[in-house]
Amino acid sequence: MINLPKRDVRAKDSEEADKSPFSFRVRVGEHEVEICGERQEVLQTIEKLPELLKNVSDAFKTMRVKATVVNVTTPKEEAAKTKGIPLPYPKISKAESCSKAILQLLESDWGRWRPRTLRELSEALEANAIHYPTSTISGVLNRLVKRGFIRRWKTDEGYVYILAEKEEV
């Protein structure tokens, strides 16, 4: 039998846990709150969370808020781009036109998740055995933007496209 010196490991671990970085994220309806800091500070703020959420919710009641789109790339997607690995594109049915095929892509979870570039849309069409020249796809995208079906804006990667929000009357 080995006799080890007794010491209170839990007390030391507890002190270190209180000082270590800690974060907490909660989503309620359309609102999301993330609290970061030392563990004790975060826990104290969580106790005040109902009051904070009420204030945030009240602030947004008076405004008509449109959803904003944030361009997010997952590490998996970023690695796939640099290694040339094909991304998992959505499966769409054969469309009677290029514009309908593009709209099917943008209506899928893949298209709604984040704005897509011309190259990504072209690759997604090819992954579904739908082949159009890049110039055709570009022209169709321009017409869809002019007709109000999709939105477009410029980023560092070039123009990105996403479905236009339907206006509520």
Distinctive features:
169 residues; alpha+beta; Arc Repressor Mutant, subunit A; three-stranded antiparallel β-sheet; 8 helices; elongated
Share in helix: 40-55%
- Determine the structural class based on helices, strands and strand pairing: alpha+beta
Per the principal axes of the C-alpha atoms, what is the gross shape? elongated
Main pleated sheet: 3 strands, antiparallel
Any low-confidence stretches, pLDDT <50, length ≥5? 65-71
Q: Give the H and E element order.
A: HEEHHHHHEHHEE
What can you see in these coordinates?
The radius of gyration is 24 Å and the shape is elongated. The chain folds into two domains: 17-61, no CATH class; 75-163, Winged helix-like DNA-binding domain superfamily/Winged helix DNA-binding domain (Arc Repressor Mutant, subunit A, Orthogonal Bundle), CATH 1.10.10. The protein has eight helices and five strands; from the N terminus they run αββαααααβααββ. By secondary structure, the protein is an alpha+beta fold. Mean pLDDT is 76; it is low at 65-71.
Helix-strand layout with pairing:
Blueprint: H1 9-19, E1 21-28, E2 31-38, H2 39-47, H3 49-61, H4 75-83, H5 98-107, H6 109-113, E3 116-117, H7 118-127, H8 134-146, E4 150-155, E5 158-163
Antiparallel strand pairs: 1-2, 3-5, 4-5
Helix pairs in contact: 7-8
